[in-house]
Amino acid sequence: MAFAWKAAGLTYNRYLTVAARAVRRSLKDGPRAAAERRGNMDLRFAKWENGKQGEVKSLAKANDEALAAQAESK
């Protein structure tokens, strides 16, 4: 049986992001503000090829670009 997030065309990381956002938005004002601050991240990554580091990219930006490319291909 396929997972619902797979059937919806989401990656597991995107599914977790959506679920976490829904939980944060359901909290009362005080805890919501603290939870939203914890939810902001700036992750970066780089691909390594032949022992050399490639360009360092923001994970959020790369994810947005991948989603846009996937939407265009459909």
Spatial strand sequence of the major β-sheet: 1-2
Order of helices and strands: HHHEEH
Chain-averaged pLDDT: 84
| Helix/sheet category | alpha+beta
Distance between the amino and carboxyl termini: 24 Å
Explain the overall architecture:
Pfam families: ATP-synt_Eps. It comes from Aspergillus brasiliensis. Belongs to the eukaryotic ATPase epsilon family. This is Mitochondrial ATP synthase epsilon chain domain-containing protein. One of its GO terms (molecular function) is proton-transporting ATP synthase activity, rotational mechanism. The chain is α+β, with helices and mostly antiparallel strands and 74 residues long. The chain folds into two domains: 1-40; 41-74. It has four helices and two strands. The protein has helices at 4-7, 12-25, 29-39, 59-73, and strands at residues 44-49, 52-58. Helix 2 runs antiparallel to helix 3 (29-39). The radius of gyration is 16 Å and the shape is flat. The mean pLDDT is 84.
SSE blueprint:
Layout: H1 4-7, H2 12-25, H3 29-39, E1 44-49, E2 52-58, H4 59-73
Antiparallel strand pairs: 1-2
Helix pairs in contact: 2-3
